[in-house]
Hints:
The structure is a homodimer.
Chain A: E1 2-7, H1 16-28, E2 32-38, H2 40-47, E3 57-61, H3 72-78, H4 83-92, E4 98-101, H5 105-116, E5 130-132, E6 137-141, H6 151-168, E7 175-180, H7 190-201, E8 206-212, E9 223-225, H8 228-253, H9 257-275, E10 285-287, E11 293-296, H10 303-318, H11 321-333
Parallel strand pairs in A: 1-2, 1-4, 2-3, 4-11, 6-9, 7-8, 7-9
Antiparallel strand pairs in A: 5-6, 10-11
Helix pairs in contact in A: 1-10, 3-5, 4-5, 6-7, 6-11
Amino acid sequence: MVKVAVDAMGGDNAPGEIIKGAIDAINKMSNIKVFLIGKEEEIKTELKKYEYNKEQLEIMHTTEVIATEEPPVMAIRRKKDSSLVKAMNMVKNQEADALVSAGSSGAILVGGQVIVGRIKGIERPPLAPLIPTAKGVSLLVDCGANVDARASHLVQFAKMGSIYMENALGIKNPKVAIVNIGAEEEKGNMLVKETFPLLKECNDINFIGSIEARDIPSGYADVIVCEAFVGNVILKLYEGVGATLISKIKGGMMSTLRSKIGALLVKPALKETLKSFDASEYGGAPLLGLNGLVVKTHGSSKAKEVTNSIIQCVTFKNQKINEKIKANIIMKDE
Amino acid sequence: MVKVAVDAMGGDNAPGEIIKGAIDAINKMSNIKVFLIGKEEEIKTELKKYEYNKEQLEIMHTTEVIATEEPPVMAIRRKKDSSLVKAMNMVKNQEADALVSAGSSGAILVGGQVIVGRIKGIERPPLAPLIPTAKGVSLLVDCGANVDARASHLVQFAKMGSIYMENALGIKNPKVAIVNIGAEEEKGNMLVKETFPLLKECNDINFIGSIEARDIPSGYADVIVCEAFVGNVILKLYEGVGATLISKIKGGMMSTLRSKIGALLVKPALKETLKSFDASEYGGAPLLGLNGLVVKTHGSSKAKEVTNSIIQCVTFKNQKINEKIKANIIMKDE
């Protein structure tokens, strides 16, 4: 049984979509137990809508909620009875294997480090979402946890990302690249120039050199290493360009009678295509390198993303990813 | 007459597409004179294909070409008789108002600073392309000239970008935003945190605060200020996500007989839509803050982009953008 603590109160669509996502997850897989954490009355009202195996679900009552706009450090410290802090403590105390939250990113990052804690030897836990590509998915690491990171952090991101892609997604010998502004080794800013030779020296990863942002969507690398500011820009621009382009295309198709008829005919095929380029299909982003698994999903997550994020926790546990991080990164570095 | 020196030998499609683009420009506008700079024999062979007003075109023979992979500083210093260095010198000596090149980015950036030279008081000349948005275009400044920039550089980028958008594109009181990883003022890396209050103090620009990468394609700001590494990632990812998504959509439309028929019907409308999201429609990227105008176009530029880049030089000169940069930025700072 994989035990997942779900922050029922976090995110724009909480608790409705979060709870629906949790129910869908336990109805899909019998080896998951979900703890729904939050205001008991609200959770119970939502639960009345669904049929599910009662043994796979437990409510943990809490009274407080951390809002997105609250300063994260303060919120984590003061709101001891918030759904997020409770979930963090359950992971820390090994009452849960993992937690999933669509709540405040800042609070999740702070809570992950302060409450759950880093694996000994890991300097900074990066946020590592999967992003869709022409070939499937790539792991973007770090996409927002550690701005102004150092070269040694990026080297650990590369190693953890490589272990994650190999074990969680079954990609043998994943190709690791560093985001750069040119393909040549002498290109880059100070951080990239310092990190590049260190990555070249790592003989436990398949480092293929620099990747220009243009080549990220084509699936040129499996693990894309970058500093958090750059990673956050990549992740958000991916969404932004995709959304604007799709809305332009839809608008264009509605512009003439001829194209309107065409649009009706292409609609089902197009829907299928766009689904494969939709980040929510791939669950949330794990914070790698913590003593337990913390998965952050979009603040705007709907049930589907919550379900996928919960299912993701099963692979993470079964593939013993944290054990492999400990064995492959820390032992070797010591 | 606006005199434009065109590097006929620079870029993946030189000299054919470059020369075609130059001819299209003079055939469109009678107030442009183009100097085609490069190997005379090759240029003459190409020119035989076209009809044009001979008084609007002159060939300047040079023997050398700077290749993309050459170290830029060395190339600019040694290849005195290259098409790019010749074009740079023509701008420096005011024999030309502007130059357009699709050649080595590094050599264009170095040559711009070393040969053409900065306007007195400008610390770093940024590369500032227009990028397509849902509403029209935005200016991305800096997109690759100055990695590891300082806050004072970004403030000048904001001011120059604002003058450019107001005068070259006629956008009154353009909205200026800084790329950030969250909307709140306390978010960001060290550079953004240092730059933000300085931009807030500028009363000669319409600073609207942070912009998340997600909101760039929607056209939320007219001038998008960022450090060159981030800007380069934005520009290239724009291209990459667009290209991958469009190829996925085209593939999707070919997947069933029904959708194939639909694709035939939507094709003309779709083509029109995608054209509005195509960066090459908007010409090249000016290097702002130089004693003269240097326009860098994509290495892969076709005739259309070259034509638009040449026409762009007319507006730049007629709107006296450099004079306005001198008057509004330098005088005030002194």
